[in-house]
Amino acid sequence: MSSAAPPLEDENLLSEILLRLPPLPSTLPRTSLVCKSWRLLVSDPGFIHRFREHHRHSPPLLGYFIHDSRGISYEPTMDPPDRVPAGRFSLRLDHSYGFSLLGCQHGLVLISHDLPRQILVWDPVTGDQHRIAFPPWFDGIKNQIHGGVLRAAGEADHFQVVLVQATIWDKQHLQVLACVYSSETGGWGDLILTPIPAPAYCTGLSAVLVGNSLYWRLAGCFCALLEFDLERQSLAVIRVPVGEENSFTVMRAEGGGLGLLSLSGLTAQLWKRNTDCDGVASWGMGRTIQLDKLLSPYSDETAPLFILGFADENNVVFLTGGDGVIMVQLESLQSKQLCRIDNIFDQHHHAFESVYAAGIGIGGEHDGAELVGNPQVIVC
């Protein structure tokens, strides 16, 4: 009776082991240096696809996209050897006018192009682009469009786009329109409407997915959230327990459910929306975080703090305390200064969380991450 092959010589078992390596940009290039058989395995397009899918719900925060007068650009947040250079995720647009960066979710970037009335769904890692005509009820020139893009569990090849837009109904009310596009059917669904008090508007922050709903922050005459329930295909407005003097963002609450992160001076407050046995919902305050010690090396403590963006998969908030961007991981409370730029208050930072498996040539060449140092090589 022949004995079974050692685990690392069984290609099927080895594939399952390597799939579970950390989803960092340097992982597969480093793995390819072990030996020829490993290099052939991790350079196979089928394996790379499986690697991305296996880690799709725990992706690293690679960087963020911003939209300014120069167009749409990407800034990396990771350090070498996992830093993906800014030029790797570049998008050539005819000109910056008429484009709006709506957000990033599930490794996809959503861009509105108002003049041809199109939505662009772009996967920066694969380079795939999908251009979709606006639904007939939407006009990005008259009223600003907001949206979100997402991929359902197990649907790597299909995505949904949710567009929302506020239009004037009467002097006291606005009417919010919503419509959902499915790449599987290739068309837009029915128009969904709800009235909201005027004046109110969605901010430029990315939508946040919590449970089966997408949320956008509303500002204007009152502070609230606009909720789109993907399962019920319905819109709702949810009041929040903070005022206009607070900078806040939607987030997943600690322990699950809908939450908020609000700033008051140098104090961050975490809130959670609870529902009692009678179905009555209310907000409760949770953890309080003092930011002065975290931010003092980077920021003027007298300058007000504002939230520029939120990375919901990694629980990271992007803050500004003047002329720089600081990111804070809310669980570990680790902070890091990213950059110093002008006109920072006009920019929203759309977190790009995705699995980037750099391409690897047969000779071991790699593409993408700044692989540096002398990784240990195991000879097979």
Automatic annotation (TrEMBL):
Domain F-box positions: 12-48
SUPFAM superfamilies: F-box domain (SSF81383)
Pfam families: Beta-prop_AT5G49610-like, F-box
Transmembrane region(s): none
Entry coiled-coil feature ranges: none
Span of domain F-box protein AT5G49610-like beta-propeller: 102-341
PANTHER family per record: F-BOX DOMAIN-CONTAINING PROTEIN (PTHR32133:SF317), OS07G0120400 PROTEIN (PTHR32133)
Protein name (record): Uncharacterized protein
